[in-house]
Known about the structure:
Blueprint: H1 3-10, H2 15-23, E1 27-29, E2 32-33, E3 48-50, E4 53-55, E5 62-67, E6 97-98, E7 107-113, H3 116-123, E8 131-137, H4 144-150, E9 165-168, E10 175-180, H5 187-194, E11 199-207, E12 210-211, E13 221-223, H6 226-231, H7 238-257
Parallel strand pairs: 7-11
Antiparallel strand pairs: 1-2, 1-3, 3-4, 5-7, 5-13, 6-7, 8-10, 8-11, 9-10, 11-12
Amino acid sequence: MRLDRFISERTEYSRSEIKSIAAKGGIKVNGAPVKKPDTQIDPDRDKVEVLGNELRADKFRYILLNKPDGYISSTDDGDGKTVMELIPPEMRTKNMFPAGRLDKDSLGALLITDDGDLAHRLLSPKKHVSKIYIVKLANPFKSKYIDIFSSGITLSDGYQCLPARVKNVENSEKLAFIELNEGKYHQVKRMFAAVENHVEVLMRVSVGGLILPEKLGFGQCMELLHKDVENLFEPLDFDAFCSDFSAVFSAILINNLL
């Protein structure tokens, strides 16, 4: 493969920018500067660095972002700051986009990728990739929510939701986990509104079997390894998750509110 094509597919640089960087000695192959962008390389064997950043052989990139409040899940900045601004330049590619969305005021796990096929699989209703959220409610959690949500709650516009699981967080009246297998507009907020409650804070803590790392702070991101990407399509045990991560995510949410 041509060196400039390899770099172009894995960064935001144009071919002309790559040519300029190469001319200035900013591109190295196996540790040696290469000034000819049309140099042929072996993507699986050669180590390519651009301005000190090594490029991975994988064609696609998968970034997990812990989305903070105030950013929109879009590549278009017409409505304000976008989550793409939080991705460091060396981790971006030309075709990168959020695979799914979180509301502007919502927090937590958001996948950023340039792999359209994977994003389609992830968002397809047929795949039933579950997502778990922790919410802070305006009013105390009621045990009747468990049966109401599990039977498929009806929203104010008449939409019949798929069955969902919900569970209160131990030692907290107003914190709860909810697991969805679909992603309609403002769905979590609308579901709790349907039982006369109000979601004050919402944070997504897992996508499929991929759990938001405790040490990944708001606004921070990390590149996912192949095994992490595979976990996106592995289901979690909701009860076990709530038991194992109740203290972790409730503390993160509470600390974020202080």
